[in-house]
Amino acid sequence: MRIIRAAKVLTGRPGEVIADGEVLVDGARIVSVGPRGSAGEAEEVLDLPGHTVLPGLVDAHVHLGFDDQVDPVTRRSRESDHHLLLRMAENARKLVSAGVTTARDLGGRGFLDVALRDAIEEGLAVGPHLVAATRPITITGGHCWYMGGEADDEPAIRRVARENLRAGADCLKVMASGGLMTPSAPPSWTPQYTTDQLRVVVQEAATRGKHVAAHAHAHASIRSCVEAGVTTIEHCTFFTPTGHRYDPRLADFVAASGTYVCPTVHGVHERIAKVHGQAMVEAWLAGVAAMREAGMRVIAGTDAGFAVGGIANRTDGYVGGLETFASVGYGNAEIIELATVLAADACGVGEVAGSLDPGKRADLIAVAGDPLERISDLRNLALVLVSGRSVGQAGVDTVTSSVG
């Protein structure tokens, strides 16, 4: 048994703050949460005055295996699976070094995300709990086709979905629209699948009790995703041939459905503005702010792993994304909620993670300061527990590739 005490304990439930609180941990599980002294005695007591304890952070959209050696024209790679898996393990270590204790990997090749997920659970690698989507389902030559999930009609969609689930996928990822990073693919404002085809993906996931994350930039694709019943819409940028064009009526439709939206907010927008222009970035940020006003169920996810114009969105940059939310009007308590309990629920792990409750996994962090006052205090990590194991990696670094 271990007691962790702090000046504040944020349980993850909206508005619940325990001053001078403590969490009792037994192995991989939380036993109790309450004020100082409520847990009784324990073999070990960690007292952290001036600190805040809160649930481990959740990154609902990462790509640990985005390959920095993919040719920009052919999208083929010289990097072997063995080498890529090692780099994925290092990216997972960087994620957990930022306080992320659960991450949803939304697309990789060769089922390497499943191998890494299992290695972390066995204690053979250091990283967060992973929710693995394996190969994204996409049309032939579509966005991220090179990851191996090409499917053009209903039978092919079912086949790829079932192969992914057979390989151990925790969820399914589908490219409902084109994207920005695959030259051969339809542009981002163009749908890749119809509503009925997206329903097939949802049906196949449901047969195994799994959820669907849908990449959607185009207006029509966003609407189709809601109509098809996906669990989360990724990006949701309202993209058109002339850039971001937020549609209030479509936003209201998404909000009314209760579908989770992961706008993949990261902390490198200022550097991206230098490549793609300030106007594009400002339109994107205005859309993220408008999602809040519309009442969308927004969750935190950084799209960590991508590189645009030589700009890397590193896997240890998670808090930068939360600071971006704050810069467009989200409150700190609201940000912590969308980064913990809401994101965990959207990723299908809300019963075991996302809040500090008895019986849940002992996934928690302690930071110096008070993130309710300063969201940047989430950078001041003093403790990271993943299923009760201390995995703090602060101060450890390796040679950094251009991605991750």
UniProtKB/TrEMBL annotation:
One of its GO terms (molecular function) is hydrolase activity, acting on carbon-nitrogen (but not peptide) bonds. SUPFAM superfamilies: Composite domain of metallo-dependent hydrolases, Metallo-dependent hydrolases. It holds the Pfam family Amidohydro_1. InterPro entries: Amidohydro-rel (IPR006680), Metal-dep_hydrolase_composite (IPR011059), Metal_Hydrolase (IPR032466), Metallo-dep_Hydrolase (IPR051781). It comes from Nonomuraea rubra. Residues 52-391 form the Amidohydrolase-related domain. This is Imidazolonepropionase-like amidohydrolase. It comes from the Bacteria. Keywords: Hydrolase. The keyword Hydrolase applies.
